[in-house]
Design a protein that fits this description.
The complex is a heterodimer of chains A (about 375) and B (about 425).
Chain A: H1 8-35, H2 40-48, H3 69-82, H4 84-91, H5 93-103, H6 106-112, E1 125-127, E2 143-147, E3 150-161, E4 168-174, E5 184-190, E6 196-198, E7 212-223, H7 236-268, E8 270-271, E9 274-275, H8 280-308, H9 314-339, H10 341-344, H11 350-358
Parallel strand pairs in A: 1-4
Antiparallel strand pairs in A: 2-3, 3-7, 4-5, 6-7, 8-9
Helix pairs in contact in A: 1-3, 3-4, 3-7, 3-8, 7-8, 7-9, 8-9, 9-11
Chain B: H1 9-35, H2 42-52, H3 82-96, H4 98-102, H5 108-117, H6 120-127, E1 138-141, E2 157-161, E3 164-175, H7 177-181, E4 187-193, E5 203-209, E6 215-220, E7 231-242, H8 259-265, H9 267-296, H10 312-339, H11 345-369, H12 371-375, H13 381-388, H14 398-410
Parallel strand pairs in B: 1-4
Antiparallel strand pairs in B: 2-3, 3-7, 4-5, 6-7
Helix pairs in contact in B: 1-3, 3-9, 3-10, 9-10, 9-11, 9-13, 10-11, 11-13, 11-14
The chains are: A alpha+beta (about 375), B alpha+beta (about 425).
């Protein structure tokens, strides 16, 4: 039966994460962007919310709530509202943890999941995006070839979050190049493995406080057991889609924040004797922003709901993510436009959201629900 | 409750049934009633009346038939789904054909106004006729030559003379006006001012029965699309109606208060999402046509690849698909709120704004993408492009929806944001 009402647990998650975002993330946003460092105390506090540990079963030392993409996107929208860099730093371990939880072998779950259930933040990395203008997850250039008891990984990755800060990295590479999504597998690779070369920290237009790295794999050898899902491998498109949901939810949250900022400014800024929001040129921009933020959220919810119901959701997740990327850029661009010259000045937050927003067209992986 | 996008079995069954009906009974005759503008598909209309009792949506009056209790009752044990069922049903019928669907008998907007603010006696007297054997239509007359969205500028007057109201003025763009007044024993709800100096507070709706002396249809419009649905001008010259035919209170108590006006305007909170659903039905028809054509041509749509590797065709279609789905979800949210007794004026306008514009663009893009197949009257696609444009206009233009939305988001009154 159709309903748009959050259940009690989702409401609780939303409220809790929302206060965390407003109290701790947002106030630290500008300084963090300027310094290029996420405030560790905020990450520590964020970890205490138990967003990741919460969806890991008790047998792997988690708190035993069920993994729910819907609850995940609700939480991530609030984190995105707070700050994108911090949100992506906080949730970077989710790619490895949720991939293992969703598709790992029993041994892999036992080996890797407990680390994410502790009281202290546990970094983990993932390498999916590659440094080519026409990168596409279905045409992965990085390859993993089997050689006896090992896989040999070769290829270049970029936008790899927390590569140097993590013990493990989930590396996506084609085991069957030319087979599209189904030819891609994931490998749990210990950071420091021979053949994994982590370059200097990347300098990006946005998400400046998130530490991302280029990583080159040159004959990087890992044992067979490192392959996610073991002999059977993994459903890469499913994992990719789960990460698309997460990214789309972040985009909704950040755009919502930009909308609220524009709304407040338009009611307070006086020009020609009245608030600029009294003019349709501004008011209509804001109305469209509001409509598109809500529209995107519903697309994300529906795709996440399908995921939780074990229905096909890959197509829906892709549509929602692409829609979210366009929406975020539109909304944040208008956020700058509505402030005029003030929007261009770094004293104000809109230029930061504007820079962050474009990233959603490029980001893949990096976070997951 | 928890977030859920699965239609209940009851609505699903209705949806499937209506879809089959739309496919087998409406689609095949859609072109005929586009080319022959002022004809009516009487066989179909009689059948609709027989099977649906005039209720079914009747284009606008979803819920009108289900005898919903007074007003918005507080939470009860079983959540209502009347308006959601209406939206789902309407999408299916309009998938069949918008013009024919709009010509379906039923209470229409006029009936919706009676339902929303009529007394029990008025409801009894005016709504019972829609469940009879013969098709009957209700209509609503708001627009005037010089007052469209600006309803406060209505010039038609109503003057109380003894036991009667005397109406004088000119109304245009009355949907199903001919159907209500000439083709059946229906009525039209006419908006007129009882006190021009009172502005919006003086504007009241009046029920005028078919055949009332002094009321005359002066023009039947020829239109770009939705041609099966009649749109008429009506003139009122000393048209006398009983005193009790006013909807709501006749008092203009306080000129600053516009409660009565607002109450009837609240009808739009129910009808705007339904107009959105109409648009979505047409948009889906266009999208289905494209997908079937591409399938026949062996063109695969590669979902999930990165947009910059897509063909322009794939990108367009995926954009259309996402837009359509977004419009549907906004619409479902608006009707779900209504069904649950939540204030939904903002969400209703958002849904209408999104759907009206999205589908107007979807159908235009569809004609472009299908090239000569799109432009040819051999197929229905060009018709859908003409039909869908109305959804961004009637029941409040897209711009009016943005105004309503912006006022709510910014917290501005209509004086603060004109």
């Amino acid at each position: 039966m159709v309903s748009f009402e959050l259940d009690d647990e989702q409401k609780l998650v939303q409220e809790t994460v929302s206060s965390f975002a407003a109290d701790l993330m947002e106030p630290a946003m500008r300084e963090s962007d300027e310094s290029g460092e996420v405030p560790q105390e905020v990450i520590a506090k964020g970890w205490e919310l138990g967003l990741l540990g919460g969806c890991i079963p008790e047998e792997y030392e988690g708190f035993g709530e069920e993994l729910s993409a819907l609850t995940g996107v609700i939480a991530l929208e609030e984190l995105g509202w707070g700050d994108l860099s911090m949100a992506m730093h906080l949730m970077a371990p989710s790619v490895l943890a949720i991939s293992v939880l969703d598709q790992g072998t029993e041994d892999q779950k036992k080996q890797y999941l407990p680390a994410f259930c502790g009281e202290e933040y546990k970094a983990a990395s993932s390498a999916l995006v590659e440094p080519y203008y026409n990168f596409c997850p279905s045409v992965m250039r990085a390859v993993a070839e089997r050689d006896g008891d090992e896989y040999v990984i070769n290829g270049k990755k970029c936008l790899v979050p927390l590569a140097k800060e993590s013990d493990h990295m989930l590396v996506f590479a084609a085991t069957n190049p030319g087979m599209g999504f189904s030819g891609v597998d994931a490998f749990i690779v210990p950071v420091g493995t021979k053949g994994m070369e982590i370059g200097d920290r990347e300098k990006n237009m946005g998400i400046k406080a998130l530490a991302t790295y280029p990583v080159n794999f040159k004959d990087c050898r890992v044992p067979l057991v490192c392959r996610l899902g073991g002999e059977e491998g993994c459903d890469f498109l499913r994992l990719l889609s789960r990460s698309r949901l997460a990214l789309a939810a972040l985009a909704v949250g950040m755009s919502r924040r930009a909308l609220e900022h524009s709304r407040d400014y338009a009611t307070q800024r006086i020009a020609f004797g009245e608030p600029i929001g009294s003019r349709q040129a501004i008011a209509f921009m804001i109305a469209e922003m509001a409509i598109e933020v809500d529209a995107t959220r519903l697309l994300v919810w529906e795709a996440a709901w399908r995921c939780d119901k074990d229905m096909d959701f890959e197509k829906e997740a892709a549509l929602a993510k692409n829609y979210a990327a366009d929406m975020a850029m539109m909304v944040c661009d208008r956020g700058v436009q509505i402030m005029g010259g003030h929007g261009y000045i770094r004293d104000n937050p809109v230029e930061l959201w504007f820079r962050n927003a474009r990233g959603f067209a490029t980001f893949e992986g990096m976070v997951m629900v | 409750m928890t977030i859920d996008f699965e239609l209940s079995p009851r609505i699903k069954a209705t949806k499937n049934m209506i879809h089959m009906f739309a496919e087998s009974a409406i689609r095949p005759i859609a072109r005929h009633y586009d080319e022959n503008e002022h004809e009516k598909p009487w066989d179909l209309l009689n059948m609709v009346q027989k099977f649906m009792g005039g209720g079914m949506a009747g284009a606008f009056g979803a819920g009108g038939e289900e005898k919903k209790p007074e007003g918005e009752e507080p939470k009860e044990k079983k959540p209502r789904e009347t308006n959601l069922a209406g939206a789902v049903t309407i999408e299916e019928i309009f998938w069949g054909d918008a013009g024919i669907a709009l010509s379906f008998p039923g209470p229409g907007l006029g009936g919706a106004a009676v339902q929303a603010s009529g007394t029990p006696e008025q409801k009894e007297k005016f709504l019972a006729r829609f469940s009879g054997d013969k098709p009957v239509w209700g209509a609503m007359a708001i627009t005037e030559p010089e007052a469209g969205s600006d309803t406060a500028n209505i010039k038609t007057t109503a003057v109380l003379d003894g036991d009667e109201w005397v109406l004088n003025g000119e109304k245009i763009f009355v949907t199903s006006g001919k159907s209500a007044l000439e083709d059946s024993e229906g009525f039209v709800v006419v908006w007129a001012t009882v006190d021009r100096s009172a502005g919006r507070a003086g504007i009241k709706p009046f029920i005028v029965e078919h055949g009332t002396p002094g009321m005359q249809i002066t023009k039947i419009e020829d239109k770009m699309g939705i041609r099966c649905s009649d749109t008429v001008s009506i003139s009122f010259m000393d048209c006398r109606i009983p005193k009790e035919n006013i909807l709501g209170s006749p008092e203009v108590v306080d000129k600053t208060k516009t409660e009565g006006f607002k109450k009837v305007m609240a009808t739009f909170d129910a009808t705007r999402p339904l107009v959105a659903a109409m648009a979505i039905g047409v948009g889906r028809a266009a999208l289905d046509f494209i997908k079937e054509t591409l399938k026949e041509e062996g063109v695969e749509l590669r979902y999930g690849i990165n947009p910059h590797r897509m063909t322009s065709l794939e990108r367009d279609i995926m954009q259309m698909e996402a837009d359509l789905k977004a419009a549907r979800l906004l619409t479902w949210r608006a009707v779900w709120m209504l069904d649950n007794g939540l204030r939904n004026d903002l969400q209703a306008s958002m849904a209408k704004a999104k759907a009206g514009l999205a589908v107007t663009r979807i159908t235009q893009k569809a004609v472009e993408l299908m090239g000569p197949l799109g432009y040819s009257r051999e197929y229905l696609l060009e018709k859908w492009m003409r039909d869908s444009k109305i959804n961004d206009i009637f029941e409040g233009t897209g711009q009016i929806q943005l105004l309503v939305t912006a006022r709510r988001i910014l917290g501005f009154t209509r004086e603060q944001l004109k």
